[in-house]
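Dear colleague,

As promised, here are the two records you asked about, laid out in our usual form so they can be pasted straight into your sheet.

NAME FIELD: protein one
SEQUENCE, THEN STRUCTURE:
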Amino acid sequence: MTESDMPTWKLGVVSFLNARRLVYVLERAADLELVFEVPSKLAERVDAGEVDVALVPVVDFAGADRQWQIVSDACIGCDGETLTVRVFSRVPPEQVRRLHVDGDSHTSVVLAGVIWRELYGANLEIVAFGGDETVDECEAVLLIGDKVVHNSLLHYDIQTDLGSAWKTLTGLPFVFAAWAGPVESDFSKLGARLSAARDGGVKAAALIAADFGPGLNWPVAMAERYLTKRLKFELGERQREAMRLFFDLASKHNLLTNPRELVFACP
């Protein structure tokens, strides 16, 4: 491969179905290289310079040493129910005190902590979930992403969707991930492409569901509803307000320490 054949940009991308509408168009671009990873690992890729920008969980913007900017108005969010960010419990949510958590997401763990403090006045003890624990060992489990669909915890009678709970608490949408890169770099052209790719993915939702749903253990019809009815992909003013409020509440409850002010380099 000659230097002229090398990709201009390396993008860190979430490996779940929820990101496919954002990257479907980008996968066909010769000047881009997509690096797929679970959400919790993407921030490390940006820090190490292994990717130029990444679709980073929003809680990772709070790192004291991170000088990041949000480079596009494309994001992964919701305005109510998410379907794929859920707490499964054998007791009512107001009685949950110990939460086993999926290690793939930083943001959802903090969001759960905020919701339980604000709605139920309870501090949650957070414990890693290995996947083999019995119901007797776990009164509640937080799962995110595709595994919520094909890893159903059948013995838990109660489900709490964190997107719905946040909407009840604040009346606002929620943003789980946004495109981020170092603040000193100029990503204006790339940011515009990321937004355009989001718009192209909107039109291709049915095709994406058919192409990728079965391989990720999603029924095709459910995958299409998820991509078109549950998720939101535009970072508007209400989404920015929600991100700031999330940081404020997480800081209030000592779930984040002195989070950095969000820098929006996108329109």
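NAME FIELD: protein two
SEQUENCE, THEN STRUCTURE:
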Amino acid sequence: MKYFSSLSPLLIAFVETALLGFLIGLEWHSFRRATSKDLGFGTTSTLTLLAVFGLGLAIVDSTLKVYGIGLLALGALLVLEYQQRLRTGDNLLLSTLIALLVYSFGPLALHGPLWLPILFVIVILLVLGEKPGIRRLSDAFRNEEAITLVKFFIMAGVILQLLPDQEIAPFISVTWSQVWLAVIVVSAISYFSYLAQTYFFPSRGVLLTGVLGGLYSSTAAIVVLGKRAHGISTAETRMIGAAIVLAMLMMYLRLWVMIVVLGHLETAVRLALPFSVAVVTSALIAWLMLRAELISSAPQSEAPPRHPLEFSTALLFAFLFVLFAGLTHFAVQHFGANGLHILSFMVGFTDIDPFILSLLDGKFHVSEAALEAAILIATGSNNLLKAGYAVALSRNPALYAAAGWLALTFLLSIGYAWVRLAG
């Protein structure tokens, strides 16, 4: 670093500009060769010299007036070149945009941070190199997905900024912004797992359904898998059992990530051991269930999942968040840690995410060990609920092993929590 700091900034900007222009030229040359016999405007040498030319004009006049005149001249030449291509039936604007972006490398390298033009080049290279994949994604992109994305931006970029950072009520020790931040974290995990399952893994197998479904709702995923196991062969049911175990595994990972993202590092450290034991053991059990089977990724006939990012879902989650915060405050105030643990057991038979997040964001007068025990009890009773769903919906003895492991995690969670409290 000391060596680079001794070099002239103009020399660094020149080398960076020429090198980045050369890289874009190489990729553009390869792209045109693959899509057309005619290279058209923008060979490797042309784009390299264009980048250096933009840098030279930016150096001549620090106000960038000369650079602006050069931009107008370049635009006029590109218009003439585009009119010429229109006569041959080539109406794509990609080469024109590439030329304008390369021309901007000089001022970016001269006046901006080092990483900015590099980031421009990375985006350009990815767009050119992955154009077939981008085209397939565009063809598969549904009209309603744009509205869904707008909803997510409204939730994360508008509503969160407008909410005050003050407690909702004296008996609810969480703030408005904490409630909505929890909603955004859960919605983001759900939404991105939905996108992965819908667009990147459309031909998903049973195992992938368990993994990705477990990211946004392990209970919902196990309900779907349990229904699917009803009345089918033992061999396929064994794979569904492994998917159920993997869905539960993803619940632990999802909860731990949410705890870390929301800034509760001490709690995350305390839960790292029991959660990691549950994850590793579940992965081993799933592998044992599958070792005698040939795992196939053949396309499934099931309908694509419906995304969980809806305002109604977000509002319901926020309501449950506040409700559980109030109930937790009441239980702690009147019954202490024992009341909190009884409430944790009861909440496990509903949706545990809002309860756990409200528990972490609240200022309850209980020890860290009591909070850790409450989270473990809630996850354990939730696994007991899932075991009941798996058995009742499938009515298939081949799922008893997976359901038995889910029920066993309830006992292990209760035992571990009791040991932590006793210690």
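A couple of things worth noting about protein two: The beta strands are 167-169, 172-175. The chain has two domains: 2-136, 144-422.

Best,
R.
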